[in-house]
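FYI - complex with T4K, inputs then prediction.
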Amino acid sequence: MDKNKPIYVTQPSLPELEEFIPYLQQIWDNKVLTNNGPFHQQLEKELADFLEVPYISLFANGTLALVTALQVLRITGEVITTPYSFVATTHSLWWNNIKPVFVDIDPVFGNLDPAKVEAAITPKTTAILPVHVYGNPCKVNELQHIADTYGLKLIYDAAHCFGVKHNGIGICNYGDLSVLSFHATKVFNTMEGGAIVCHDEATKKRIDYLKNFGFAGETTIMAPGINSKMNEMQAALGLVQLKHYHDNILKRHAIADAYRKGLQNTKGISFLPEPENTEYNFAYFPILVNETEYGLSRDQLYENLKRHNIYGRRYFYPLISEFSMYKGLDSAALSNLPVANKLAEQVICLPIYPDLNNKTIDYISKIIKIKTN
Ligand code: T4K
């Protein structure tokens, strides 16, 4: 390995270019570039089968899919959500003029803690927006029970959990809607891209209207929709990427095992447990640094790694609730979010991507273990 070459938290997986060329040729030949073209239709079909979900609508990216998902269900007022996520989760509420209400997370997997949700419900609450963070499933049954009891919608930000199965079914079958991201940094990428998964044809229709300006026929506009359609290049890439998904996940699995082995018994470094009853996708490899036991703070380790050209990321620090546009909310107070705050102060996501080789994993583990500059 070349120690002068930066090792980033991820590196997008791409197929061999030759494999993609015939798809490009077809786009060039038939001149359909976007607006529900043949590759778009094929990818929707193949993804629905692959993810074992009834209906899926493709999007230009995950953020626009989140924004649209809230509109599809006419969510208003207040929505209960997690502060421990990528900022797009809460931004999707902001774009819809919805007030986010932050609720703390569970200390084991970092997902929204159902035990704390009920106390945050008010007459204005209309939905819950949890995230399956790092691809680990939320407590789906408990969240559904709360949603049913209080008549709330349940929309999952499933950006991290492409391909994950939980209790024998595709994770995106839970809740009213699930939103995926196919961004370059995700386990399945279309460079940029995303999707909404839903359970019935009428909802899919509404989603498809909303992502296409609201057109429900040549001269009918059913709502002020946006343009968030996936184009044919993205969809074609998705079709090719899908063929390599399983191999990539096997490689990710091996990398996660190698880190666990390499770092086991390193005092002050711990991992999240492997989720039960789950076919996992190894999207991220977060480690937690206990400063007292490890002898260095999380940030000292983070900087040490950087000095060695290893660019782990502190996903998700700072908490979303700490950003200026949300900090003023009552629910953003750190006293309301002690578990999330602690996790955000301890976490580093280590590099994980299919082409990461054993030598590099050993090198990263060694730098963590020796604790020197
Ligand atoms: N909800 C959740 C829970 C999410 O995590 C995300 C996105 C969304 C919603 C929104 O979905 P999208 O609208 O993005 O579809 C990255 C991604 O940009 C973002 O998609 C992702 N979450 C988030 C967790 O991570 P950054 O700011 O860390 O990205 P960046 O550019 O620093 O990339 C990380 C590293 O990856 C780079 O250091 C190098 C490498 N990289 C990145 C890109 C883009 C490459 O090697 N090639 C590339 O093309 O946010």
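The pocket of T4K is lined by residues 8-12, 61-63, 85-86, 88-89, 131, 157, 159-160, 181, 183-185, 194, 311, 313, 315 (CB under 6 Å). The chain has two domains: 17-102+113-241, 245-370.
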